[in-house]
Amino acid sequence: MPETSETKIIRDTDMDALNLVAKIIMAAKHGALAAFEKNGRFPHISRIQISTSDDGQLITLVSDLAPHTACMREDPHCALLIGETGKGDPLAHPRMSLDVIAAQVNRDSAEFNAIRASHLARHPKAKLYVDFPDFSFFKLAPQKASLNGGFGKAYNLTEEELIAAITSDQD
Amino acid sequence: MPETSETKIIRDTDMDALNLVAKIIMAAKHGALAAFEKNGRFPHISRIQISTSDDGQLITLVSDLAPHTACMREDPHCALLIGETGKGDPLAHPRMSLDVIAAQVNRDSAEFNAIRASHLARHPKAKLYVDFPDFSFFKLAPQKASLNGGFGKAYNLTEEELIAAITSDQD
User: Looking at residue A169, what is its pLDDT?
Assistant: First the structure.
């Protein structure tokens, strides 16, 4: 049922909510990234690829030519929407909005190869461009999230709950 | 093929690009809305319903309980991502990022009934909650957009081109 003023807006996080978070993260191949644009009067939004890392962060692969790459370098505070829609009312399908902090993964870092391998496992077609000099991996470290499991099913997730859900995806 | 530094980044807008814009708008039932949150250190992002109006604006139906409604009332400068993904690389599928200005549709205005009717035609299930007192329609007036038709196919769209594409959807 739709929310009404009488509905309790945020529910207590239970196992069902945590399982839904893990399911959304495991299925996420892309998301919408919102970012601040330098001196921009409007927020920036664009579609990005998503995978996960061993240490509970979300990963994206971006080109220097894409405006969101400049945004993330300028101000790492971003927001990410993940969760697919399906048939019927798009608002009846679960989705999650995460506050994330973006940081580029250094090509010489110890973790680079593991991130590259797990990202390509989720995105085999990215093999075509992953090694182009203008492409970089960014970690998107989750700070908190709002899960909307469908009408009237809203939950707030902590950083710890998100990291646990993302690392469970690596098993 | 992926973009490289040698690729011309923004192409000239031609009929194929305009047809793609019209196709994305006609198919859009939902989108990701990026908005500024009052005193927020992160941008806000959430999924919203989308339809179109006779006068070339995008329309959404939102609840007072949703945080994006407060964001749009506080600062109408928002960004909207529309365009579905499908099989394969999510970045190979066309999508469009629009700068929009949000404005609530007054329930007593002459246009309210036409907007309500055309929104329900695209979202029949919204009949369940459209008349709840906490739900409102907002117009999202397009200012400009960036169309990404797949790797290497980027175009900039003007307000006039967007309004023409949206009104063609009404025919």
Answer: 61
